[in-house]
């Protein structure tokens, strides 16, 4: 089996295949990953101040070292190997490449300097090699984050935190330096619809009042109106969210220097500025009433789309599939299949369901072709190399009281791999 993408969906697919093995059936699994490091968004997405969530990586490492899995990292499908090569070398190919492109608002001014997507900002602070040279200008006092999901909340929190709180985390060193000299003191997180429609999850909301150096402000009126609109037959999750927001709204702001403020019912209309962002204009959703906020940074966190890969059918930001089946001996799991929804665990049940279908479809095994031969010119990072990188990063972190110090540049990572 070939699994393309070493993120949660890729590892959970490998785990599901391991669980489907029996006395009569054994799988050999090759995981192909474009970066020199595995773990997908667990390394480059999940917020660095949420280290517990990243402990799921222990599960990935258990899968990786169970004996029937090989890692081919630093190998990109579409660059180093084609989908046709994979389809002819393996009994089945599973696409688990996630969705990495940020959706756009499609409003004037979105291309101005100072306007960027969470799909750029998040991997920049999480030490993703492709984003290390991004220019993130934090010289403004006010930033606006557009979106009403957990990614928007992560972005707003990272901007509004007292940056010394990031010292014991694995945030990229370049980002910690930038946050320490940041002028941002007010972060507005802006939702198009009312609080009853917000896609935040309540555990994340309930954590916000624990921020020690940041005022978190939600207007009580916004929540009261949302409760009234939601009515009596309110869904459990929505109620739990509104309860969490209500608790925040009841708090007296503590007078900190930094503030994170929620805004609802605001539709972005235009970003203005002569050569960089100076203000963002909104309409009050459902009316023509306009208002604007002076700011120097706008970050959009309104969803992701899959980056298309040659030879794989795409539609509306996802791989075209029926329950994970794409074409003969080609399957898809995770965000590339479903789009950007659910938590890390959602990928586990999803991948298990697809691997059951794969097993049903399985024909006589093909004669073995080892793709290692086709990758002779590529500096492949194997599981052993990755373990060397991992150990070096963790050791560098120990000295500084961090879980790890991430290396950012590809050549640095390859050096740590001792290739
Ligand atoms: C900012 C952010 C924060 C999040 N925080 C949380 C959280 O706190 N808790 C939670 O439960 N969930 C969180 N999530 C959701 C979680 O990260 C996803 O559910 C999960 O990562 C999706 O898994 P995936 O394997 O489909 O995609 P990914 O994690 O994106 O993995 C895809 C992998 O495929 C690789 N790849 C892509 N293209 C190629 C190619 N051509 N060739 C080879 N490899 C390729 C990528 O490099 C990547 O490693 C967060 C998501 C984001 C964006």
UniProtKB/TrEMBL annotation:
* Co-factor(s): FAD
Tell me one GO molecular function of this protein: oxidoreductase activity
InterPro entries in alphabetical order: FAD/NAD-bd_sf, FAD/NAD-binding_dom, Ferredox_Rdtase, Ferredox_Rdtase_adrenod
Coiled-coil residues: none
Question: Which UniProt keyword terms apply here?
Answer: FAD, Flavoprotein, NADP, Oxidoreductase
One short Pfam name that applies is Pyr_redox_2
Q: In what residue span(s) does the FAD/NAD(P)-binding domain sit?
A: 2-160
Q: Give the family per the record.
A: Belongs to the ferredoxin--NADP reductase type 1 family.
Quote the protein name from its UniProt record.
Unannotated protein
Organism, by scientific name, is: freshwater metagenome
Q: What is the lineage of its organism?
A: unclassified sequences, metagenomes, ecological metagenomes
């Amino acid at each position: 089996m070939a699994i393309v993408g070493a993120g949660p969906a890729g590892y959970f697919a490998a785990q599901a295949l391991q669980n489907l093995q029996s006395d009569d059936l054994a799988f050999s699994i090759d995981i192909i990953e474009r970066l020199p490091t595995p773990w997908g968004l667990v390394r480059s997405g999940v917020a660095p101040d949420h280290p517990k969530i990243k402990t799921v990586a222990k599960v990935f490492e258990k899968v990786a070292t169970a004996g029937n899995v090989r890692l081919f990292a630093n190998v990109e499908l579409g660059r180093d190997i084609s989908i046709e090569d994979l389809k002819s070398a393996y009994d089945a190919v599973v696409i688990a490449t996630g969705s990495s492109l940020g959706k756009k608002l499609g409003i004037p001014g979105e291309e101005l300097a100072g306007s960027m997507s969470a799909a750029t900002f998040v991997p920049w602070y999480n030490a993703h090699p492709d984003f290390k040279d991004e220019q993130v200008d934090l010289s403004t006092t006010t930033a606006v984050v557009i979106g009403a999901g957990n990614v928007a909340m992560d972005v707003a929190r990272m901007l509004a935190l007292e940056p010394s709180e990031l010292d014991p985390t694995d945030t990229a060193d370049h980002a910690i330096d930038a946050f320490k000299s940041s002028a941002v003191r007010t972060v507005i997180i802006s939702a198009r619809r009312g609080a009853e429609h917000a896609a935040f999850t309540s555990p994340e909301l309930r954590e916000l009042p624990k921020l020690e150096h940041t005022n978190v402000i939600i207007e009580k009126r916004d929540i009261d109106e949302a409760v009234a609109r939601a009515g009596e037959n309110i869904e459990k999750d929505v109620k739990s969210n509104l309860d969490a927001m209500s608790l925040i709204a009841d708090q007296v702001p503590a007078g900190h220097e930094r503030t994170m403020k929620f805004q609802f019912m605001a539709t972005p209309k235009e970003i203005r500025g002569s050569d960089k962002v100076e203000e963002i204009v909104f309409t009050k959703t459902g009316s023509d009433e306009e208002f604007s906020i002076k700011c120097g940074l706008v970050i959009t966190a309104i969803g992701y789309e899959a980056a298309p890969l040659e030879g794989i059918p795409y539609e509306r930001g996802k791989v075209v599939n029926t329950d994970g089946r794409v074409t003969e001996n080609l399957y898809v799991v995770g965000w590339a299949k479903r789009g950007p929804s659910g938590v890390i665990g959602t990928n586990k049940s999803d991948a298990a369901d697809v691997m059951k279908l794969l097993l049903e479809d399985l024909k006589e095994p093909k004669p073995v072709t080892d793709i290692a031969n086709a990758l002779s010119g590529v500096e492949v990072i194997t599981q052993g190399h990755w373990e060397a990188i991992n150990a070096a990063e963790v050791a560098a972190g120990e000295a500084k009281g961090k879980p790890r110090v991430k290396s950012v540049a590809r050549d640095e990572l390859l050096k740590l791999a001792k290739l």
